[in-house]
Write the structure tokens for this entry.
Amino acid sequence: MTRLTVVQILPALQAGGVERCTLETARALVAAGHRSVVISSGGLQVEQLVREGSEHIMLPVERKSLLTLQQVRLLRRLLRELRPDILHARSRVPAWVAWLAWRKLPAGERPRFVTTVHGLHSVSPYSAIMARGEAVIAGSETVRRYILDNYPECPPERIRLIPEGVDPAEFPYDYTPDAGWLARWRQEFPELQGKKVLALPGRLTRLKGHATFIELIGALADHPEVQGLIVGGAEAKKAAYAEELKAAVAAAGLAGRISFTGHRSDMREVLSQCDLVYSLSTQPETFGRTVLEALRLGRPVLGWEVGGVGDILARCYPQGRVAPGDRAALLAATRRWLAAPDWPAPSPHFLLSAMTDETLALYASLAGTTAAPA
């Protein structure tokens, strides 16, 4: 086996889908005997990354500012020192810094340049950098179509569909938390006991569809056994929105029927205690990892049939698909489920091992060929 050096670059190592994919890929690289290096402005997950065998290099590449381009020369020097086989950019600002550093390297010193499109960004010259990779990874069929439709300058053969995935060992089917966790959960949320828990997980932002969820719970007044659960916290700059949501719940007379968990780091356990999970984002998701995590645990999901969520539901739980924005259909689907619960079966689709295996195979195939002209 040829030992590769792979550099992944992203804005920061905080919480989120981009960060998770980076850590999962880094972990797989280390397990396969490769050298894994991550460049970012730092964050909460640096400690875990290093503990799992990767290297981290601090570089301020998170700000959407022309000043960030001052890092191009430093990154070029780092690339000369590291001599990576692969340079993998996962976000727009770092991708611009990486591409500008990469293109000025002598042809014989260039690593292969890979990008992953993690978001359905506004179509613009700024966003087009994500389609400039020598290989462009799409984490879902929705993302692949987005690239084809909006960036015709990216040859279709460069696009590699490598769906994101979840490890069934981490989210086992029909999982039950340990007794200690359950006791703490029941003490913290006694109002959930003996109820049918309908949950909307996700960060507290307007895009996640909280207004629709609140309206749904209000429309289920004839189901006293139903308790709504909003799972997730707000970043500091979204604190006002969190208070606005709580005020909206109180104004609707639902303070006793909708609970807020705040930020949780134990999503596996929380999702396992939900009877029905929702995905109601007002904009298409590129993937929908929380939807997949819930389904892996055997929890049913109702969600808008659009974007990555629609892709996942089509393969894993087609009866959970609802026409985007159709609140009447959402209410009807919820009533049907409450009358006759329909549980998802274990699915062979969207496995983490498939994602990491295919990503490492792509790295290996690229490393054996010559970099394209800048």
Notes: The longest helix spans residues 352-367. The chain has a mean pLDDT of 93. The chain has two domains: 5-165+352-367, 179-339.
